[in-house]
Amino acid sequence: MATATHPADGEGDGNLPDNDKKSNGESPKQHMLNGSAVENEESVKIDRYGFLGGNQYTNPEHERRLPQEKLRKRETKWLDMFINWDKWMSKKFKKVRDRCRKGIPPSLRARAWQYLCGSHFIAEQNKGLFAYYLSQDGETKCIDDIHKDLDRQFPQHEMFLSKGGVGQEALFEVLKAYSLHRPTEGYCQAQAPIAALLLMHMPAEQAFWCLVAICDKYLMGYYSPGLEAIQLDGDILFGLLKKTSPSIHKHMRKQHIEPIMFMTEWFMCVYTRTLSWTVVLRLWDQFLCEGVKVMFRVGLVLLRVTLEDRLNECPSFYETLEKLRLREMPAELQDESFLFTESLRLSVTDRDMQREHVKQVARRKAAKEAMEREKAAGAQGTSVKHSKSKRKS
């Protein structure tokens, strides 16, 4: 089977130059694995996704692989959809959705992601723009912030473990170009793992346009100053939690735990820093097809599995938040079949999500108006007091 890092065929997956060697000739196998220097290169095995270790590492012994014959049939079906993509999306979307839920064939994942988010078409309409951005200097603070974050993105992946290597250079190009493309947003740290994930599947220019499409179409407002969009989605998630897991909702309310305290990284990084890599890829197949509702469903399952039977282990604010950091991932959450089966079994419909969205928007609007009235009243009171004081004098 083709891997996500090294596609077997050329269907939409552009290959970056080989990054197996550092610029100084050092092999990546001489780097750090799980925080320890590795003396014996033969003891280090790169998994099929390019990871040498860490939470994202996939043990080959625990992998589930499709039989080759079944995989080839799926590839053929996807190639057929690419030929008549608009027709499939407009008239047979449920079939596209079902195929995304089953998992996109690794050899076609890059092309499928670009079609699903529409970046392929955006790139066609903006030829030369990425190269233009690379020729510009960029805003100094953004450039400095990007440089600081480069070696923090999947440091145990073969593409990014070499400081100043090809992978980090491509990541810099994508993030710099985005900061110039959306100057009012600039650069947000949470964009870096998303860009890195995309670069594991496609060249820098394709990854850039994918990032643009994702930020515009799926995560609109997530990276804007103030983070109002992510706060709103946190409130929506909490509202849905009351419906799916009322005991957890009550527990968190009692401990004054706000959603922004635990779900920010989940949503802003689209779980790239949270889940095992096989699960991340399956989640992204669905996310780019169905949108942010996939993030909500997965978040609700994470909360239920992590806390439902462990509330007695969380007597205080601290213990609850520690559980939600998922440093010790429950075994069932590492099983892609379990997670997505459970997410689809939730008693939450699209209408429920829309209703909760309307409710939370109205609630936030009312709170903002009340605050403005209180502020105006305070200002008026100060003015009256000042006027009386002036008359007395």
From TrEMBL:
UniProt keyword terms in alphabetical order: GTPase activation
Entry's Gene Ontology cellular component terms: plasma membrane
SUPFAM superfamilies, alphabetized: Ypt/Rab-GAP domain of gyp1p
Protein name: TBC1 domain family member 10b
Lineage: Eukaryota, Metazoa, Spiralia, Lophotrochozoa, Mollusca
Electron transport as UniProt keyword: no
Organism: Plakobranchus ocellatus
InterPro entries, A to Z: Rab-GAP-TBC_dom, Rab-GAP_TBC_sf, Rab_GAP_TBC_domain
Residue intervals of the Rab-GAP TBC domain: 103-291
Renumbered residue ranges of the record's region Disordered: 1-41, 364-393
Compositionally biased intervals (Basic and acidic residues): 367-376
Single annotated GO MF: small GTPase binding
